[in-house]
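Appendix B, record 7
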Amino acid sequence: MKMYILVKRDLPDKFVPVITAHASLACFRKFEHNPDMQTWINGIFKKVVCVVNDHEFENAKKEADHLILTESALDNREVCIAFSPREEYAKMFRFLKMWAPQGA
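Structure tokens (predicted):
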């Protein structure tokens, strides 16, 4: 069981750790009574952080049980989408790239 957190590709690296920390906490708070969330939080709570382009971000919004985060330091634009943990994700998630600092 995993929580996926998708961040937009064009974010400055210095924002990503804080944004993803906020995303995991906000996702837990929003879905804390969901049975899958309870299973996840009481077990090994894996998180996967992926980088996406605008098209992938928009497609991800069509998936259930998510929340979108904005960043005030970036003119309140949408920067991240987090998904309540689950066993199975849509096929598109298998093709997303893991986030890594640019140049790493």
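Remarks on this record: The chain has one domain: 2-98. Helices lie at 16-31, 35-41, 54-60.
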